[in-house]
Amino acid sequence: ASPATLEALVLYQLRSMTVSIDGASPESYAKYRVKGDFDRVIANIRILNEFKRKHRSAFPFLAWQYVVFGHNEHELEAAKRLAAELGMAFRPKISWDKDFSPIRDPQLVQIQTGLRTTRDEHYNATGSAYARSICYQLWTAPVLNWNGRLMGCCRNFWGDFGANAFEDGLAQALASPKLHHAREALMGRVALDPATPCATCDLYLTMERDKNWIVESEVPDTKNSAVAVSIVPEPGNSPATHVDIFVTPCLSVNRLLLARPPRAQRVQLSTQYFVLLSLPPGEYTIYALPRQLDPNYRTQYPPLPPATMPVTIEPRPILREFHIPLT
Questions:
Q1: Is the same domain home to 107 and 157?
Q2: Are residues 133 and 105 in the same domain?
Q3: What is the pTM of this model?
Q4: Dihedrals φ, ψ of 244, to 5°?
Q5: Cys staple from 118: which of 78, 98, 154, 322, with CB 3.0 to 4.6 Å?
Q6: What does residue 319 show for φ and ψ, rounded to 5 degrees?
């Protein structure tokens, strides 16, 4: 990607981006991502992070997807460390094809990832198909192909849902009757039309065989907006400081520990610290309450006063960032 494209991802506030990197070295990466350039991928992520720092943005939230194989299982720890360095959430996955480069050390993989070594093993242990949550995308984030075709989910490569966002407009494409029919079928409410892409998917076939349909409580709430709250500490502030983020009336509490490596959905960008929240539309007040972990710092660094900010959250898909200075 060109620098201009990478900067545009930040400027237009792409919410999140998953990068498939199945290895922590060029050699391992190329075995599955044939003709892929590991060094170029990592370099582009670093450039993207530079633009996030430049524009003081937490978006896009970055995730590292790592499909575990026999040829890359030994690099899991190295990949985790690099993902942390790059401010990425690390998401290991089980391969779709158990016969391609099968896992060599199942115990090692389970200890380091918590995953079973094959999808069949996952099913036998849990009674549910692995990656069933992919089907939720039909509700939460319907997938569009590069040419505008409505694909429904990231698993689908069999056919589209009879709509094109570029030709029909996004709203009309997402209102596709074929997509609505697939949702109803995944909940077991109607018999699936064989012409629907889901008809050949093993996830659907497993649901149909077991009558283990998706229920409404499974599907994440799609009414919420993504919100990034950033804390800008005063220069020279104690490294022992942490900040509790309260959001009322939801009573959501998040803790940011300053001057520590980023974890999971917390991204440290220069002197700013971000927490990513998901909030329904409405009026809120964000409270930032600084605290000192070590009382010995109190004489050198007086406690910072709390900060508050009233905010209005719009319905999805609008993204919002709020910067709270602590001085």
A1: no
A2: no
A3: 0.73
A4: -90, 130
A5: 98
A6: -105, 145
Structure tokens at 6: 């990478």
Residue 216 lies in a domain: no
Do 285 and 313 fall into the same domain? Answer: yes
Residue holding tokens 């900060």? 307
Q: Enumerate long-range contacts of 215-224, CB under 8 Å, 24 or more apart.
A: 215/187, 216/187, 218/136, 219/136, 219/139, 219/140, 220/136, 220/139, 220/140, 221/280, 222/139, 222/140, 222/316, 223/280, 223/281, 223/315, 223/316, 224/278, 224/279, 224/280, 224/316
Transcribe 95-116 into DSSP letters: -S-TTSS--S-HHHHHHHH---
Same domain? 166 vs 150: yes
> Which domain, by its residues, includes 84?
1-125
Amino acid at 28: S
pLDDT, tens digit (0-9, with 9 covering 90-100), for 89-144: 999 999 988 899 999 999 999 999 999 989 999 999 988 889 899 999 999 889 99
Q: Looking at the domain assignment, is residue 101 inside a domain?
A: yes
Q: H or E element: which one contains 172? A: helix 170-174
- In the chain the first and final C-alpha atoms are separated, in Å, by 39
**What is the per-residue pLDDT for 3?**
95
Domain final position from 125, 150, 173: 125
User: 3-class DSSP state for residue 250?
Assistant: coil
- For residues 196 and 203, give the distance between their C-alpha atoms in angstroms, rounded to a whole number: 14
Is the peptide bond between 26 and the residue preceding it cis, with omega within 30 degrees of 0?
Answer: no
Same domain, 43 and 5: yes
